[in-house]
Design brief:
With 193 residues, the chain is mainly beta. The protein has 2 helices and 15 strands.
Length: 193
């Protein structure tokens, strides 16, 4: 829906859609998506006088793969995006979308096994001169196994702070946030914890 307010030179918008693709081919990667349908919803407003675009809600749901919420604010000078992303079970998504293409490759990754969920929260701010991304990555019961490299990690949980800035010069008072990772078991070659 689109609702305009001509006297105020602004309009509100709402969009809800279902997205579908039968298959995806990207180089050697191929995935059949016959039974997958993504949904997207956007609610927001545009103000022509102040030249701003704001989404109160922007969500994207892709079953078994990811769910994202991304409120956005944009002016000619600044884009601000605050978001959250959660993957589906990595093992299910990996098996469905990447296993078959990797099996046909001469790569050690064809033996890769994944499990668990990744979540992320972030804030992005872009101006003409700078880009800043702050956030946190949260592995939840993540497991990784690569037999050819004799690597296996199970029960990986924690918080990994993310920070990227292109400011020149970089702020001298930039605070470093500590991260923490825990795991149930870790084996790398002959070493095991």
């Amino acid at each position: 829906t689109l609702t305009g307010y001509p006297a105020e030179q602004r309009f509100d918008f709402t969009l809800a859609s279902q997205l579908a693709a039968r298959e995806i081919l990207l180089g050697p990667f191929y995935a059949r998506l016959d039974d997958h349908q993504a949904s997207m919803a956007i609610e927001g407003h545009a103000d022509l006088t102040s030249r701003t675009l704001t989404t109160r809600r922007l969500t994207l749901e892709i079953p078994e793969l990811a769910s994202a919420g991304l409120p956005v604010s944009a002016t000619p000078e600044t884009i601000t995006l605050d978001g959250a992303l959660t993957t589906g079970n990595l093992g299910v998504a990996f098996a469905r979308y990447l296993r078959k293409p990797l099996e046909n490759q001469d790569s050690a990754l064809r033996e890769l096994r994944l499990d668990g969920v990744l979540a992320a929260e972030f804030s992005l701010r872009k101006t003409a001169d700078n880009l800043s991304i702050q956030g946190v990555l949260q592995p939840r019961e993540v497991g990784l196994s690569l037999a050819s490299a004799n690597v296996e990690i199970t029960g990986l949980n924690g918080l990994l702070p993310l920070s990227y800035r292109t400011e020149t010069p970089a702020p001298s008072s930039a605070a470093t946030q500590p991260g923490q990772l825990t795991f149930a078991a870790c084996r790398m070659g002959p070493a095991a914890l």
